[in-house]
Amino acid sequence: MERHKALEIVKKQLTEHRYQHTLGVMETAIELARKYGVDEKKAELAAIFHDYAKFRPKEEMKQIILEQNMPNDLLSYNMELWHAPVGAYLVQREVGIQDEEVLNAIRYHTSGRANMTALEKVVYVADYIEPGRIFPGVEEVRELARHDLDEALIQALKNTIQFLMKKNQPIYPDTFYTYNAMVMNRKGGIET
Ligand code: DGI
Ligand code: FE
Ligand code: FE
Hints:
- This protein is mainly α.
- The protein has one domain: Hypothetical protein af1432.
- It has ten helices and no strands.
- α2 (about 15-35) packs antiparallel against α3 (about 40-50).
């Protein structure tokens, strides 16, 4: 699908602020894809649609999670997590995107998962560091992303887990699984 067409579709689903964020994620994902040898068109498409379901009503998301047999432990956690798997489903159903790699990059853009593909990592990190993001620690992840996508991802996960813990929020298990898998497979091995 052409960029212009994809943007026109997603714009209708988002607020202006979230659309600007999406443009930032798109540019960043393309840059990271080029740097790390990932398919740029897939990165572009996944980035454009990554927050497609962000503004769907809670009840609609809940119903989709139940009906489509998505992991229903999601329902016990922050509803902020829901728009990722629900987005993958709706982008397939409503937009007609069938590429499983692209759909998975959307599906796992919030929690991550163990053994992420390079495309999934690109979208996750781009979402975290796009130019519109301003929060403590983002600059460090931007710097890491210039040379090492895995280290950037690990740092983003650490920040997210710490941020949630500071707010006394539960951590979704996949977020930990992602962190653990990344640290265990780290180049140079784990420190003991
Ligand atoms: O949709 P975005 O705002 O662009 O970013 P995102 O899809 O990464 O969503 C971030 C939100 O998801 C943020 O409010 C924190 C929340 N979140 C991410 N990981 C977890 C989580 N919430 C819980 N409870 N547990 C997690 O592991
Ligand atoms: Fe998101
Ligand atoms: Fe996002």
